[in-house]
Automatic annotation (TrEMBL):
One of its GO terms (biological process) is fatty acid biosynthetic process. One of its GO terms (cellular component) is cytosol. Coiled coil: none annotated. This is Acyl-ACP desaturase.
Length: 310
């Protein structure tokens, strides 16, 4: 008799959980219209249609805010690659496939409304943005054929990280319209996080050792999907320096809330594999906390030096 692959067994056992959470999601998700968040009356033609070419002076947000807005939008732009990756992991059948397509549809409107807002308000350079979009989508996104449990863990952290990045970017712009838009996008990201978070919870009950190993691997190796964006490292450094998204936020507001929700360090009954993974996770978190503190100290010192020169 042929042995059923572990991923197939898990998908069969989790089908009920997926359906339950899909129905919960559909019950709480509120319909919203991207066009209602864009100040269309501010729009005007660019140079090729007899209007003005973009100029930095036309933007009402700071250069750092522009950088964060561009990174957020370019990350959303790579949706075709994300869809491919999640469909590869979840398939097209049953509740799994229904979720994949619903998630993709909801994610699709994020890029639509953010781009419309940025172009209408002339917040960013449209030429630079389009060139970066082309480069980002040509690079695509490859998860490296993550195992199913690793996908659950990664998207849980990633959706929460994206939610926080959008919310903090909106606040940083000091533009009420932009903050309202990104807060609405962040609400979608939060609902997506809840779906994946609950899959991890169920998987900890079904395969605790394997799920613990996956959680540790994804925390230790975590990288935002926007890492393929041109000059991402430099832009991420600027965003971190501004306090929009940095190591402290990642440690305190992304990793730990999920670990506490899953009761990772209270979980009993782990085998050797799970205990080893949990020990590795504990050591990594301590090191990350130290890194975050050092970054905060360096940033505070730089700010003090800058203030002293004024």
């Amino acid at each position: 008799m042929a042995t059923v692959p572990e991923s197939t067994r898990l998908m069969l056992e989790l089908e009920g959980t997926v359906e339950e959470n899909l129905n919960r999601h559909l019950g709480v998700a509120k319909e919203w219209m991207p066009h209602e968040y864009v100040p269309w009356d501010e729009g005007r033609n660019f140079a090729d249609l007899g209007g003005e070419a973009w100029d930095p002076e036309q933007s009402r947000v700071s250069p750092i805010a522009r950088t964060s807005l561009e990174v957020n939008l370019l990350t959303e732009d790579n949706l075709p690659s994300y869809h491919r990756e999640i469909e590869r992991a979840f398939g097209r059948d049953g509740a799994w496939g229904t979720w994949v397509h619903r998630w993709t549809a909801e994610e699709g409107r994020h890029g639509i409304c953010i781009r419309d807002y940025l172009l209408v308000t002339r917040a960013v350079d449209p030429v630079e943005l389009e060139r970066a979009r082309m480069q980002t989508m040509e690079a695509g996104y490859d998860s490296g054929d993550k195992a199913l449990l690793n996908v659950f863990a990664y998207v849980s952290f990633q959706e929460l990280a994206t939610r926080i990045s959008h919310r903090n970017t909106g606040k940083y712009t000091q533009d009420p319209l932009c903050e309202k838009l990104l807060a609405r996008v962040a609400m979608d990201e939060n609902l997506h996080m809840l779906f994946y978070r609950n899959l991890v919870q169920a998987s900890l009950e079904l395969s605790p050792d394997a799920m613990m190993r996956a959680i540790t691997d994804e925390v230790v190796q975590f990288q935002m999907p926007g890492a393929v964006i041109p000059s991402f490292v430099r832009k991420a450094a600027l965003i971190a320096k501004a306090g929009i998204y940095d190591l402290r936020i990642h440690h305190d507001e992304v990793i730990w809330p999920l670990l506490r929700q899953w009761k990772i360090f209270e979980l009993e009954g782990l085998g050797e594999v799970g205990e080893k993974a949990r020990d590795e996770l504990d050591q990594f978190l301590k090191a990350l906390d130290t890194q975050a503190s050092r970054f905060e100290e360096r940033r505070a010192a730089a700010e003090a030096r800058s203030a002293a020169r004024k």
